[in-house]
Amino acid sequence: xxxxxxxxxxxxxxxxxxxxxxxxxxxxxxxxxxxxxxxxxxxxxxxxxxxxxxxxxxxxxxxxxxxxxxxxxxxxxxxxxxxxxxxxxxxxxxxxxxxxxxxxxxxxxxxxxxxxxxxxxxxxxxxxxxxxxxxxxxxxxxxxxxxxxxxxxxxxxxxxxxxxxxxxxxxxxxxxxxxxxxxxxxxxxxxxxxxxxxxxxxxxxxxxxxxxxxxxxxxxxxxxxxxxxxxxxxxxxxxxxxxxxxxxxxxxxxxxxxxxxx
Length: 262
Known about the structure:
Elements: E1 9-13, H1 18-29, E2 33-38, H2 41-50, E3 60-63, H3 69-83, E4 88-91, H4 106-134, E5 137-142, H5 155-175, E6 180-187, H6 193-206, H7 210-219, H8 229-240, E7 251-254
Parallel strand pairs: 1-2, 1-4, 2-3, 4-5, 5-6, 6-7
């Protein structure tokens, strides 16, 4: 099975921690030239220094804020003009705050829509011409299992993730004729700072002990544990590889079996 990403350029968004960082590390280990995107420059420099380098790989970073979609697009466009084609785009950014949908403010939906769908769309537009020209294109969106099954107390996230899922399916159909694949990876409960925050917020709102909330969540997972960021990264890396050339337009849950629908 060909997983070799040598001479491929990958952009990984939200790559200074959690799933994004794990994805960047895995793609680098497969030989890709990795470009990190996040808003914390010191963290970007640190992660860049940790990426595997076989001696010929050219890793880099772009310091950008997903709250400024047009500025993000401009920075990535400038990078491509300097550095060349991007073959792999991993759209990933932190999810909206938890909370019931009935209490959500309209501004929360707008912010999340911009951070996720609009940024994904603009980055895809910037990268796809190079993908067409090079004959190799992989767009992978890290979303959530809420695309298949709405999650309690994540009203804004459920709404926006579903929008991204349908955007991705439409984009997959349109770009397939160019040999560009578009797929979604749907992480379940994964050991990240976001999960820790969700557990803490739920414990506070329900006046519960954090360990009890954690154990209740684990009880819902057939494999009996939370996922590791590296396990999500493995799925992303496979979809980014030559081996996944005939897979497009799918939602791939990586959730230990928690999602009850097929």
